[in-house]
Amino acid sequence: MVITLSLIIVRIGSTALEMTGLSKEVASFQAQSAFSGTGFTTSESEYVVSHPVRRRIIRILIFLGSAGITSTIATLVLTFVGKSRGETKSYLIILAGSLAALYVIFTSKRIERWMRRWIRKFLARAFPQLKVYDYTQLLGITRGYSISQIRVRKNSWLANKTLKELELDKEGILVLGIYRKVGNNEVYIGVPRGDTIIKAGDILICYGPEKVLMNLVRRVKGTKGDLEHEQAVKEAEIRMLQEKMFNSGV
Predict the structure, then answer these.
(1) Comparing C-alpha atoms, which of 163, 202, 204 is closest to residue 186?
(2) Of 92, 98, 132, 168, which sits 20 to 30 A from 175 (CA to CA)?
(3) Using CA atoms, how far apart are residues 143 and 64, in angstroms rounded to an integer?
(4) Do 206 and 174 form a contact (C-beta atoms < 8 A)?
(5) Contacts of residue 23, Cβ cutoff 8 Å, sequence gap at least 6
(6) Domains of the chain with bracketed CATH
């Protein structure tokens, strides 16, 4: 019962964090880390607790986790104290069977969908300040678009040019931000302007068609790179025309 309750609490915490804008993977990891009290020291954790609503969720998970883990250990120890060998063996079999059943239940996709639907409804009513952001749907990640990190190499077509010169927007690519090493520190340039020079070693956070982003990673400086850019621009124009025709119902 204690383990089942713990799993439910972690699932609720994970869904609550996800409703504040975190991805499913990050929300699940941070909820588990906070509840168990282990691993909650990553750079992601600093990002999570900077949000007031997330900080409150994490605080509750840590509090419940400290009580839940202690109760679990105490219950487990008391279960086997003063028992005969036969009783101990029976309890171990029951425990193993119960854990196996819990594993099947909590890894079932159908049960997960049902739980997430119920938890979301409950949290939306109980905590209206939680806002649901499905970034996968909003950004069209499942429709051929993607967000990628591109590390700029010395021989990259991107290196030593301004964003205005690169004209990545004509290819359908948006540069959302740049991570850059300055001395021993790493700085982040959010929403870079057209006169921002891309340097070797920069990490670009780009959004656009997944195929175009993959080709951009491999593009090298020189005439070949320029021709690939021109080809990508033409393909982007065709893609935009097709999208307009689709939206207009033609």
Answers:
(1) 202
(2) 132
(3) 40
(4) yes
(5) 135
(6) 2-126 (no CATH), 138-247 (3.30.70.1450)
pLDDT tens digits for range 3-45: 777 778 888 888 888 777 777 777 888 888 888 777 555 566 6
Q: Which residue type does 171 have?
A: E
- Could you give the CA distance from residue 105 to residue 100 in angstroms, rounded to a whole number? 9
Mean pLDDT value across residues 224-229: 94
pLDDT of residue 110: 82
- Looking up tokens 């938890």 gives 119
Q: State the pLDDT at residue 136.
A: 56
Nearby residues of 119 by Cβ (< 8 Å), 6 or more positions away:
11, 12, 15, 16
Q: Does the CA dihedral 83-88-91-92 come out positive or negative?
A: positive
Do 202 and 152 form a contact (C-beta atoms < 8 A)? yes
Q: Report whether 196 contacts 162 (CB < 8 A).
A: yes
Which amino acid would we find at residue 52?
P
Q: What is the CA radius of gyration of the chain?
A: 25
Threshold 0.70, pTM exceeds: no
Q: Give the DSSP letter of residue 221.
A: S
